[in-house]
Every structure is written in C-alpha cells, then in structure tokens.
C-alpha cells in the first residue's frame, strides 16, 4: 500500500474517532439527573413568578397559602393589570387607556410607542365596526401628527388605513390587523409595560428556562447520544437515537 493511502486511511480513522458520539443510556442519564439537587423553595418561586407575571391572581393567592411562597408584588395589582389586558383583548381600547392612566399616568407618558399602538388599536376597532368616517377623522387628528414625528409610526398608520380600501378584508394584504392576534399582541405590550412600571419582570422566568433546556440539548447533540425531553408538557425522557 502506498504511503499516500496509508495517510488517507489514518486520517479517516482519526476523523471517525473525533466525530463519534458517546452513547448515554436512559438508566445512566436518570442516575446523573438524580444526583442534581434543586431546592423546593426555588421551584416554588418559579411557579409564583409565572402565576404573577401571567396574571393568574386566584391561583397565585391559593399557591401562596399552600406553599408559603410570598409574591414580590401586591397581588391586588394583578387584578387591575388583568382588567387592562382584558379590555384590550375585547376591543375596549378607550377603557383600557383610562385604566392604565388610573394605575400610573407615567406609563403612557413615557412610552410613546405603546401609546401609539393603543391608538392604532382604537383605529382598527373603528374600522372593524364599519365606522369609516370616524376612523378617518381619528386617524387624521390623533395618529397622523405622531406619524409625522416618527417614520415607523407613519408606516404603521398607512398599513392600518389601507384596510379601508378593501371591501373584502380576507383579500387584504394587511388583513391580519383585524385578527384577534393583533389585539393579543397589543394587550401583551400593555401588560409588559405595566409590569415594568411595577419593577417586575415583564416575562416569566419558567419559559426562559425551558428555552435554555432546548438550547442545551441541541448543543449536546453534537457530542453525545443521550435521552431527550421532546415533549416539555410531560418531561418524559426518550431513549437516545443510536
């Protein structure tokens, strides 16, 4: 065999060794997991953080009583925040704006983008209800001046007003503005702003940890074959693919 082919063969063997993955059985993996200790107090805090951030006030109060875990904000403020969120989700934007101002006027005063999006949602609701003249007047008086000061606002305003040009919104390229998902998007933005004003995280920590779990599995895939958690709702370990 020539020296060339000997070298090629050795390189191929080295590459195969380098790229081969360690196989970890389900039993081995479970043993490693059992060696990891997590404090129950930390788990309770994660649950409470999720309930508070997402606005499950009744569940948060019950969990506080059962676990002894204290929330980091007054649970009464959750009810007020959820009232704002529900108002936006139901299309009652004017009511939502009033409730936000009752909570803290600085929220809208210091967040022009949020205020614009709420006004944009008001415009969408007018269009949804077929109030064309009122919608045009509202757009001209309330939104156009803000669009002149901000190019992105102007573009969003133009997209919204273009809804009026279509009798059948199902064929409208911006018809998604009339979807319930648009209300939910605006409601989530308001919810996050209120949480921030209360010095609370705007996003729950639990989803971030789950994202980190998926990321870590993807990174480990390059080095080993091991039991995966593919269904986060059950957290079931599945045998490694070999």
Automatic annotation (TrEMBL):
Official protein name in the record: Protein GID8 homolog isoform X1
Alphabetical list of Pfam families matching this protein: CTLH (PF10607), LisH (PF08513)
CTLH domain sequence ranges: 77-134
Source organism per UniProt: Juglans regia (English walnut)
A GO biological-process term: proteasome-mediated ubiquitin-dependent protein catabolic process
GO cellular component: cytoplasm; nucleus
InterPro entries the UniProt entry points to: CRA_dom (IPR013144), CTLH/CRA (IPR024964), CTLH_C (IPR006595), LisH (IPR006594), Ubq-SigPath_Reg (IPR050618)
């Amino acid at each position: 065999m020539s020296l060339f082919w000997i070298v090629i063969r050795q390189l191929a063997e080295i590459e195969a060794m380098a790229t081969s993955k360690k196989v970890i059985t389900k039993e081995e993996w479970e043993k490693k997991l059992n060696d990891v200790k997590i404090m129950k107090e930390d788990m309770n805090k994660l649950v409470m953080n999720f309930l508070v951030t997402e606005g499950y006030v009744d569940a948060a109060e019950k969990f506080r009583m059962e676990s002894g875990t204290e929330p980091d904000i007054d649970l009464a403020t959750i009810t007020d925040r959820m009232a704002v969120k529900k108002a936006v989700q139901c299309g009652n934007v004017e009511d939502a704006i009033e409730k936000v101002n009752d909570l803290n006027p600085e929220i809208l005063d210091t967040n022009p983008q949020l205020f614009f999006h709420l006004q944009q949602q008001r415009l969408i609701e007018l269009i949804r209800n077929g109030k064309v003249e009122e919608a045009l007047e509202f757009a001209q008086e309330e939104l156009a001046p803000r669009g002149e000061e901000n190019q992105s606002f102007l573009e969003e305003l133009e997209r919204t007003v273009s809804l009026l040009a279509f009798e059948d919104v199902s064929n409208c390229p911006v018809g998604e503005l009339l979807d319930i998902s648009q209300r939910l998007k605006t409601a989530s933005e308001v919810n996050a702003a209120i949480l921030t004003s209360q010095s609370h995280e705007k996003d729950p920590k639990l989803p971030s940890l789950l994202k980190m779990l998926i990321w870590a599995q993807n990174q480990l895939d390059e080095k080993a074959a091991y039991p995966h958690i593919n269904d986060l709702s059950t957290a079931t370990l599945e045998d490694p693919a070999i």
